[in-house]
Amino acid sequence: MPSQDLIETLKLFASISTPVAVAVSGILINRTIQRQNAKAQRESSWLVKWSDDFLKIASEFNDSATEFLMVYWWLSALQTNPSLKSDEMALRNDNLVHYRALVLSEWRMLKFADLAIDSGKSLEKAAKALVEEAGNWAKNGGGSVPLFREKQAVFNKSVRRVHAELLGLGSSKKR
User: Fold this and answer.
1) With b meaning 16 or more CB within 10 Å and e meaning fewer, what string describes 30-59?
2) Is residue 33 part of a domain?
3) Does some domain include residue 4?
4) How many domains would you assign to the chain?
5) What is the sign, positive or negative, of the torsion defined by CA atoms of 145, 124, 60, 56?
6) CB-CB contact of 126 with 158 (8 Å)
7) What range does the domain containing 148 cover?
8) 29: number of Cβ within 10 Å
């Protein structure tokens, strides 16, 4: 049977070692959590940066499409007011700039579409359809505003899904 002194020594050792063990465990757990948080924050920063960059380019694409459409609207208004006919050539040149910006933005969006596994293909398809519609307008001197607007709306819905996917907010197919 252990002596009373040995029992008291063991009790003292236990009373000292227990808080030390808890403190060491707490420090180790805290460091692990901090490393995981830092990793998650780096990943989150990357996701936010790329999704913000994508949204900026998609917005430029959308704005270019709208500007393109508005120039054609103004050109049709010129047909009813011959006194403004001198503006027609400048407007047609402006529209070449808008069409170029539309095509350039489409190209810049492709890298993001590649990152969005679930919804990237639908974005590519919607952007291509809108660029083709603008090309048809340029070739034919105008077109159907509701059809243009519908293609623009499909594009914007695709942008929303890709943006959510780039942010890591789950599968875009559920939206």
Assistant:
1) eeeeeeeeeeeeeeeeebeebbeebbebbe
2) no
3) no
4) 1
5) positive
6) yes
7) 46-174
8) 10
Q: For residue 25, is it within any domain?
A: no
Q: Tell me how far CA of residue 148 lies from CA of 65, 143, 173, in angstroms.
A: 9, 8, 24
Count Cβ atoms within 10 A of the Cβ of residue 19 and give its class: 0-12 exposed, 13-18 middle, 19 or more buried.
exposed
Per-residue pLDDT of the chain (175 residues; tens, 9 = 90+): 678 877 778 777 778 878 777 777 778 777 777 777 666 565 667 778 888 999 999 999 999 999 988 888 877 777 777 666 666 667 777 778 888 999 999 999 888 888 888 999 999 999 999 999 999 988 888 889 999 999 999 999 999 999 999 888 765 444 4
Q: Give dist(CA 92, CA 98) in Å, integer.
A: 10
* Any domain includes 105: yes
